Amino acid sequence: MIAIGASPVAAPADDFDDAQQVFRAGDYERCIEMCEEAIFELAHRQDWPILKIKAELTLGRFADAVMTFEEGLYTHPNSIRLLMIGIEAYRYVGDDVRVVELQFEIQQLYDRNNWRYRDGVNQVAIGEYLLSRGADAKLVLDQFFQRIKANQPALIEPYLAIANLGLAKNDYALAADNFRKALELEGDNPDAMFGLAEALAPSDRQAAGTWIEKALAVNPRHVPSLLTLVDFQINAELYDEAEKFLENVLEINSHQFEAWAYKAAIAHLQNQRQQESDFRNRALEHWASNPTVDHLIGKKLSQKYRFKEAALYQQRALMLDPNYQPAKIQLAQDQLRLGNDRLGWRLADEVHQQDAYNVAAYNLVTLRDQMEAYETIESNMFVVRMDPLEAKLYGAMVIELLQQAAELLTEKYNLKIEQPVTIEIFSRQQDFAIRTFGTPGGDGFLGVCFGNLITMNSPAAQQTRLTSWQSVLWHEFCHVVTLQKTENKMPRWLSEGISVYEERLANPAWGQSMTPVFRTMILSDEDLTPVSQLSSAFLRPKSGMHLQFAYFQSSLVVEYLIDMYGIETVRRILDDLRVGMPINESLARYTGSIELLDREFTEYVRDLANRLLADVDLTDPELPPNATLELVAQYIEAHPTNLPAMRRYAALLIAADRWEQAAEACQALIEVGDNFPGADNPYRLLAGIHAQTGNQIQEQQALENYLAVDVNALEPLTRLMEIARASEDWRKLEDYANLFVAVNPLIPTAHRYLADVSLATNDDDLAIRSLQALLELDPLDPAETHFQLASAYFRQGDVARAKRFVLKSIEEAPRYRAAYELLQMISAQETKPNHETGELSSLNSR
To answer: What is the pTM assigned to this prediction?
Structure first.
């Protein structure tokens, strides 16, 4: 018997290396010829038939691959690696009986002669075999892959095995690290480049796209990379482009099952149900029990928010293979997004029990346990789950805002919501990401809507500058309306465009508005995307600013459609989408043609952009960085409309404490339209000038003007609350404090001011809300806070709560005389339950 790796008549090693390089370059036909020549010359190296089979499978020559395997097995009967690829070949010819026989042979070989397979390459193969048979992934990782990597750091196979296992288990960091190390060993390996792209895709689409381009530069016929481009085009709703890449794949292998599965997904998304069925059948033609086909179709539908149809496909995959974990964990997430929580959590738990290393399942079951502590607030239309503390602080405001949004938007878009909408507000960004995406990440997302489920970050989870939770909630509820209106059959750009548009309509300081940066992007030929391709702008944006611009441009398209054709046309477009009409076809029905819409929208939006700062010069001034005030003044005299110079002039005047001239310079900036969010906004600068000169009324007016463009600015809001409190302007103080709570309800400042308002205006409902919030946030004077709350409850006739809180006040301050007086009144009231409660104005001080 010939031992593994022995080579009685071996072809030179560099011949095999040449064949492998030909394979990596995508010349699979030439690779097969080279392998045939070596095998004919009796090169008894098992790598030759293995490489030949890989090339034949890549080309869809399944019968040839089976023949090569059987011939190779005659020469290499003890090769576990050959048996492994033989199993794959027999699956493609539908011979499940032979597959089972080969699996048994591998087990028998290893059980009888495991000493033969202690080299690194075979150990990796055995580990991969054990994984295919459902072995504990963590055990295989540690006892096979990691051990071989440590003992043979120059061997590429363990790095690739670890990385692919990481991908399969959603451990993207592990995968990326090992693909990078594999590329250090083989820098021209397109499989490693593709794998690195897959590992980076959830966190950095731009980098992932770059690695796909590198893989295709090495091998233009690299099927996995071509399929990734298909995936990208489907996400961008560029289905014609996706079909072109699929043609390339099917030219290489007319039986490539993933290509046919993608064609089935496209057909479903285009409402071509017969073609969908035909393409699915083609995908399963050679391997009828392949669960990957239905899993892939369902996954693409899920990414398009078609969760009901997606769940059906995952169920079909599990009918073919009940233990196929990718389908089960995807089904768990689809059910959770559909609001079928009991089933979704059960499926996630099953995956976790069967595979403790599955990161997505582990994350979900851990999150489920944490969410058991969440508080639930319900109304007839909404179910809100949030952190108990946050529920006490602003939970009632969440329900109130949702009801306002529902009343306005359901009527506007002619929708009746049939079942309660679930809103989950997470106090940790990682929890939000896991619930939303299945894995940590998702930086930059504040909220996501799945149709009947909204997930969002609370202010506690926001990692950078805070954004009003009210604006986020309004935006996401608008998604509820449009997604339900279309049964989730709408392109991303339109869904986001309507939400941003409605957000801006509800409050101009919420939604995105035209800025100098956006103006420049609109007027450039590179950044403005045609309406017909707008969903592509959300994928692989060049920067975070480009992603924000995609949202803004989408909202302008919606604004254009409503301005030109009316809200009724937008409603009709949504109706068209619901019955399966492609978006560009629907748009053409009402605008003449999609090409005409592209041209006319471009003219419309560029006209808008040109109107912004129309009378100023935006070019950088020819001034040194340390230019003096006098030099800048001279430059402005010669260039009176140069905006950057005007800004520098105002800043220098402020630095020089020349307040009157500085105020004039700020006013000049305001007059030319320089009014955008940021610390250098002229209204904010003007407010600072008025603060320095003691003109509080004008300071207040300037800060209010600034809030019209930036409702998230807490520093100006804090100052406005101080001014209103000092002047006892209770109405404005309440308005300012509510704006503050809408951004950050988790600090006591605004709640304390609202309590002041309630006491001054005898508003006991407001008193109860604000004082309870203060108690949750550890007030400076808990005895006084408890007493005021007890007083408010007593005035409302709630004797039981009044007694509870006055006793807590006395507990905090045993000598608090007013609290004892209130307790006496409560005791007297308890003995006279029908007696009306008297005024307590004398009990508001110690």
So the answer is: 0.87
Q: How many CA atoms lie within 13 A of 820 on its CB side?
A: 6
- How many residues in the chain? 846
Supply φ then ψ for residue 567, to 5 degrees.
-65, -30
- Give the β-pairing of 447-449 and 421-426: unpaired
**Residue 357 half-sphere exposure, CB side, CA atoms within 13 Å?**
19
Sign, CA torsion 194/195/201/205:
negative
310-313 long-range contacts, Cβ below 8 Å, gap at least 24? 310/334, 311/335, 311/338
Handedness of CA 128, 130, 136, 138 (dihedral sign): negative
Q: Are 257 and 265 in contact (CB under 8 A)?
A: no
CA distance 193 to 182: 9
Return the residue matching tokens 């690695």.
211
Structure tokens at 61: 């020559």
pLDDT at 525: 82
What count of other Cβ atoms lies within 10 Å of the Cβ of residue 744? 20
Cβ-based neighbours of 305, under 8 Å, separated by 6 or more: 450, 451, 483, 488
Tell me the pairing of strands 375-378 and 382-386: antiparallel
C-alpha 600/C-alpha 587 separation (Å) is 13
Amino acid 6: pLDDT: 35
Between β-strands 447-449 and 382-386, what pairing exists: parallel, antiparallel or unpaired? unpaired
Q: Collapsing DSSP states into helix, strand and coil, what is residue 415? A: coil
- Least Cα distance to 717 among 729, 731, 700 occurs for 700
Question: Which residues pair with residue 425 across a beta bridge?
Answer: 386, 456
Q: How far apart are CA 760 and CA 752, in angstroms?
A: 13
Query: Cα–Cα distance between 388 and 391 in angstroms, integer?
Result: 5
Token look-up 């048979």 returns: 133
Cα 657 from Cα 392, distance rounded (Å)? 46
Residue-level pLDDT at 252: 97
Helices and strands in the chain: count of H runs, count of E runs: 43, 5
Segment-wise mean pLDDT, segments of 10 residues, the chain, 846 residues: 36 78 96 93 86 97 96 92 96 93 92 86 93 90 93 95 93 95 95 96 89 97 96 91 96 97 96 96 96 97 94 97 94 94 94 90 92 94 95 94 97 94 94 87 85 94 86 97 95 95 94 91 91 88 90 96 96 95 94 95 95 92 92 94 94 95 96 93 96 95 95 95 96 96 94 95 94 90 92 92 92 90 88 51 40
Instruction: Report the distance separating Cα 438 and Cα 428, nearest Å.
Output: 14
348 three-state secondary structure: helix
Q: Give the span between the Cα atoms of 831 and 825, in whole angstroms.
A: 10
Least Cα distance to 385 among 421, 350, 409 occurs for 421
**How far is 708 from 558, CA to CA, in rounded Å?**
23
